[in-house]
């Protein structure tokens, strides 16, 4: 495991890379994009296990305002999902020399990965989304409100602060306030999905509390490249913690495809 501090015009990003002991020659790295409350540390041992199972290097980074990256100055703009490919992700790829990559995003990170697969179409070999939202459902907003109520418990906020430090309140408010804002009332991923040309695997827990199986179905239907939607049984919104071995079983054959370099 190797850690990086990456300078950007808006602050320093924290990134980590994992190299498999037996790397497959010519295979590009997998870049992980975390969820709305996530960070590198909350991937836990999944990046290392992913590198070992696929033979590919894995890179993860904390978005600005999260984890060990610098604080985000001011409120997160409503365009933050579409902005990520041209801002933080572009800086990470430039600093680490990632000319080609596979994108794997969880939840809102999956939405960002969809945008990035279109923006960086010449570099993106494949796209994987996990529990990503292609549109807003009533359960999406209800699930966020329920989580907000849970964070009224000081112990819950203390747990969040373990990963985000004094940025924890900003992290929570960015999640809750953006998704319930007027700007997100009609939000959809449709236009970004139509720009995706690479192979796509849309994974979704059958019991995901933030989105129905219509979410991966829409991702599959609208992406222009070869796409597969797969439901994970007995799994909610966080497959890499709830069923990591079955998740790896789903990822390995997809990423072993010889057309995905």
CATH class: Alpha Beta
Total strands: the figure is 8
Largest sheet: 8 strands, mixed
Helix/strand-derived category reads alpha/beta
* CATH homologous superfamily designation: Alpha/Beta hydrolase fold, catalytic domain
**CATH topology (fold) name:** Rossmann fold
Fraction in beta strands: 15-25%
CA gyration radius, whole angstroms = 17 Å
Order of adjacent strands in the largest pleated sheet: 1-2-4-3-5-6-7-8
Tell me, briefly, the overall form.
globular
Ends: how far apart? Answer: 22 Å
Poorly predicted spans: none
Mean pLDDT: 96
Name the helicity range: 25-40%
Any guess at the CATH architecture? 3-Layer(aba) Sandwich
Helix/strand order, N-terminal first = EEEHEHHEHEHHHHEHEHH
Could you please describe the fold and organization of this structure?
The structure is a single chain. The chain is an alpha/beta fold and 261 residues long. Helix content is 38%, strand content 18%. It is globular, with a radius of gyration of 17 Å. The two termini are 22 Å apart. GO terms for molecular function: hydrolase activity.
Labels describing this entry:
261 residues; Rossmann fold; 11 helices; 38% helix; hydrolase activity; Alpha/beta hydrolase; hydrolase; AB_hydrolase_fold
């Amino acid at each position: 495991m190797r850690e990086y501090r990456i300078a950007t015009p808006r602050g320093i990003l924290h990134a980590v890379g994992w190299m498999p002991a037996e790397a497959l020659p010519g295979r590009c790295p997998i870049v992980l994009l975390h969820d709305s409350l996530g960070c590198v540390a909350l991937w836990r041992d999944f990046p290392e296990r992913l590198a070992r199972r696929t033979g590919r290097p894995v890179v993860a980074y904390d978005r600005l305002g999260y984890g060990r990256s610098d604080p985000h100055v001011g409120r997160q703009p409503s365009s933050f999902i579409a902005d990520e490919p041209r801002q933080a992700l572009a800086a990470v790829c430039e600093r680490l020399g990632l000319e080609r990559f596979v994108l794997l995003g969880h939840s809102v990170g999956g939405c960002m990965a969809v945008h990035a697969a279109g923006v960086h179409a010449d570099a993106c070999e494949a796209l994987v989304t996990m529990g990503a939202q292609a549109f807003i459902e009533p359960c999406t907003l209800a699930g966020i409100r329920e989580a907000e109520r849970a964070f009224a418990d000081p112990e819950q906020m203390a747990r969040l602060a373990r990963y985000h430090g004094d940025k924890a309140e900003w992290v929570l408010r960015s999640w809750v306030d953006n998704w319930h804002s007027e700007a997100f009332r009609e939000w959809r991923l449709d236009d970004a999905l139509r720009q995706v040309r690479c192979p796509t695997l849309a994974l979704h827990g059958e019991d995901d509390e933030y989105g129905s199986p219509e979410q991966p179905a829409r991702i599959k239907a609208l992406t222009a490249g070869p796409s597969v939607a797969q439901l994970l049984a007995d799994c909610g919104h966080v497959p890499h913690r709830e069923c990591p071995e079955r998740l790896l079983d789903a990822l390995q054959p997809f990423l072993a495809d010889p057309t995905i370099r």
